[in-house]
Design goal:
Layout lengths: L1 E3 L1 H7 L2 H16 L3 E2 L4 E5 L3 E10 L3 E9 L11 E8 L6 E6 H20 L6 E5 L3 H13 L4 E5 L3 H14 L4 E4 L3 H5 L4 E4 L18 E4 L12 H6 L2 E4 L2 H7 L1 H8 L10 E2 H5 L13 E4 L4 H18 L3 E2 L5
Parallel strand pairs: 1-7, 8-9, 8-11, 9-10, 11-12, 12-15, 13-14, 13-15
Antiparallel strand pairs: 1-16, 2-4, 3-4, 4-5, 5-6, 6-7
Helix pairs in contact: 2-3, 2-11, 3-4, 3-11
Bound molecules: nicotinamide-adenine-dinucleotide.
């Protein structure tokens, strides 16, 4: 079994390759060439969720991700998300690799939004609003910058320190982008071409009134029926609502489930899945005026595809540490 640490993983895959890998994964998923049972979420008292995400993607591999989301960890100086991925050989069932799941989660979630941005955002998009400046927000912005020529980013977080640290780190990575820390979401969202929500919020995090015509939104933070980042009105304003998986969002995405329960949104208003857009079954953005929205809760197909690509590249590059468990 190959052990792949975060430092190995960062060396073996680029964001562009991760976005291409997500394209393959989402197309296979929407074509039905995956077996992805809904994830099992165990709520651990009031502390957080232990989540188990198994998946099989035909031609790529089998994997399970163990991920825990404990929001209180930030206060004791530990990350909110802890995770590992086990990759299995699809021919023999042998465990091929144990990998750090945190960096793969951030990479594949960013890459999924990058793929959505590629098909749904205006090609001349230049400004981004980032709401929530935690771990995921970094790869979200990185992926958007891989597919669009971003020149300006306005950042809001409830926590000023995290906002400051995010801007410091991201300015080093993207020195050509003008970063501004803003004191409310109105300032971030007004006039933004692309809006990223990457928070742990249970309430909408911005006002729909501030969303410009032609904007694209990547809403990736809310992943349980109780969580919500999107103002309900934005669902009415959006011309195209694209999701990672119809089944998963209707089971897990408070952003859609809460308005459905109130009778102000219907699942029929979901335009399609990202895999259907990427394969060309349905068109992506068609006009500059459309408001487009990508809602993702994350599916195991992303982890399987990303883990399989990382394993393949690591073997080629001779990275990682082999261990035996049965000796
Ligand atoms: N869709 C997916 O595939 C996917 C994948 C990974 C993580 N997630 C989810 O994304 C969310 C963010 O994850 P993370 O690892 O970045 O967490 P994090 O704790 O590192 O960052 C979240 C940030 O959001 C900020 N925040 C919370 N409420 C806010 C609000 N109302 N307005 C502005 N900022 C606010 C927090 O201060 C924090 O800095 C989590 O809910 C996580 O479970 C989704």
């Amino acid at each position: 079994m190959l052990i792949l640490r975060k430092s190995d993983i960062e060396k073996v895959i680029s964001m562009d390759e991760a976005i291409n890998t997500m394209e393959t994964a989402f197309i296979k998923f929407s074509e039905g060439n995956c077996k992805i049972p809904l994830r099992t979420v165990i709520n651990v008292e009031d502390k957080g969720d232990a989540i188990f995400m198994p998946g099989y993607v035909e031609g790529l591999g089998i994997a399970v991700k163990l991920v825990s989301v404990f929001p209180g960890n930030l206060e004791i100086g530990k990350p909110t998300i802890n995770s590992v991925i086990l990759l299995e050989d699809q021919k023999t069932g042998e465990v091929l690799a144990l990998m750090d799941g945190g960096c793969i989660t951030a990479l594949r979630t960013g890459a999924a939004s990058g793929l959505a941005t590629k098909y749904l955002a205006r090609t001349d998009s230049k400004s981004v609003a980032v709401i929530g400046a935690g771990v995921q927000a970094k790869t979200q912005l990185w992926a958007v910058c891989s597919v669009r020529d971003i020149q300006e980013a306005r950042i809001f977080d409830l926590n000023d320190d995290r906002k400051k640290r995010y801007i410091e780190e991201m300015s080093e990575k993207f020195p050509y982008i003008r970063f501004a820390g803003v004191s409310n979401t109105d300032e971030a969202v007004k006039g933004a071409d692309i809006i990223i929500t990457a928070t742990t919020s249970k309430k909408p995090v911005f006002s729909a009134e501030n969303v410009s015509k032609g904007a694209h939104i990547n809403a990736m933070g809310a992943y349980t029926p109780e969580m919500q980042e999107l103002p309900e009105k934005v669902l009415k304003m959006a011309d195209k609502i694209v999701v990672d998986s119809r089944e998963a969002v209707l089971e897990e995405a408070g952003d859609l489930i809460i308005p459905i329960r109130k009778g102000i949104f219907s699942e029929k208003q979901i335009y399609g899945e990202l895999g259907e857009v990427a394969s060309g079954i349905i068109p992506g953005r068609q006009t500059d005026k459309e408001i487009t929205l990508f809602k993702t809760v994350g599916i195991a197909a992303e982890d399987v595809a990303c883990a399989a690509k990382i394993y393949e590249n690591a073997l080629l590059m001779g990275l990682g540490e082999e261990i035996l468990l049965d000796n």
